Amino acid sequence: HTIFSLPFAMIGFSLAVHDKGGMLNLRLLFLVVLCVLFARNAAMGFNRFADREIDKKNPRTSLREVPREIIKPRSALVFVIINAILFMGTAFLINFLCFILSPVALFVILGYSFTKRFTFLSHVFLGLSLSLAPIGAYLAVTGRFALLPLIYSFIVIFWVAAFDILYALQDEDFDKRERLKSIPVSFGKMNALIVSALFHLISVALVITGGLLGSFHILYWIGAGIFSLIIIYEHLIVKPNDLSKVNLAFATMNGMASVIFAVFVITDIFVS
């Protein structure tokens, strides 16, 4: 998940540096990276802690360290608390606005772990939790909100929600038995694939919108094209009757998409 969110955090950071005149503050960059890492540590650790009983029952997740108690639940919770404190402390070192918003960010990223118990929109909540990275990084540099980094946050929301729906396909039967909520459970495989494709289409439309609003150049559009092609490929390899390539689509392809897109966008910001 850090691979998904950190590249977009760097886009937000780069937009802010450009808006502030192009002077790179390495200390601030280091603090932003730390914030992303501490936030993702807290979020993933809490997810494993909160879902430990569910994960024990699911054959796909039963071998994870917390369900098997290779890592004790109490140790996982301590890990979460330490990372949450480090996140807030690092936000304090950035600026006061980031510090006062840090509990809100923690509420969102930790709260996601409970959403599949009561809403099929849990995928959107996951997207929301990762979408804080670009706008948070922008706030770290400028101390104010702006439209363009918000566009990139919305890209993350729909992009992440779309591929999380694909990932949830493999747990459809288990989630039904446990009365957990997801779009595949609520609407079935075929409709879930349609919703995922629609969300991905929205994310691509927002990529185009961001490119136009930001008056980007050729490198941006090359990155946008590669990002879009990777998304299309995901939907070609994941089929309702063949989920064998879900993990390839979820981790490998989306990790590549975020990193490649960020490299082209950031290069366009500073070079073009």
Describe this structure in words.
The chain is mostly helical and 272 residues long. The protein has 11 helices and no strands. It has helices at 2-19, 26-50, 52-57, 73-94, 96-115, 122-142, 147-168, 172-178, 183-213, 218-237, 246-271. The longest helix has 31 residues, at 183-213. The model has no long low-confidence stretch (mean pLDDT 95).
Alpha-beta content class: mainly alpha
- What are the secondary-structure elements, in order, as H or E? HHHHHHHHHHH
Q: What is the count of DSSP helices, taking H or I runs of 4+ residues?
A: 11
Please estimate the helix content: over 70%
Poorly predicted regions are none
The N- to C-terminal Cα distance equals: 30 Å
How would a crystallographer describe the biggest sheet?
none
Radius of gyration: 19 Å
Fraction in beta strands = under 5%
Quick recap:
The protein has 272 residues and is mainly α. It contains eleven helices and no strands.
Strand and helix map with partners:
Layout: H1 2-19, H2 26-50, H3 52-57, H4 73-94, H5 96-115, H6 122-142, H7 147-168, H8 172-178, H9 183-213, H10 218-237, H11 246-271
Helix pairs in contact: 1-2, 1-6, 1-7, 1-11, 2-4, 2-5, 4-5, 5-6, 6-7, 7-9, 7-11, 8-9, 9-10, 10-11
Features:
272 residues, mainly alpha, 80% helix
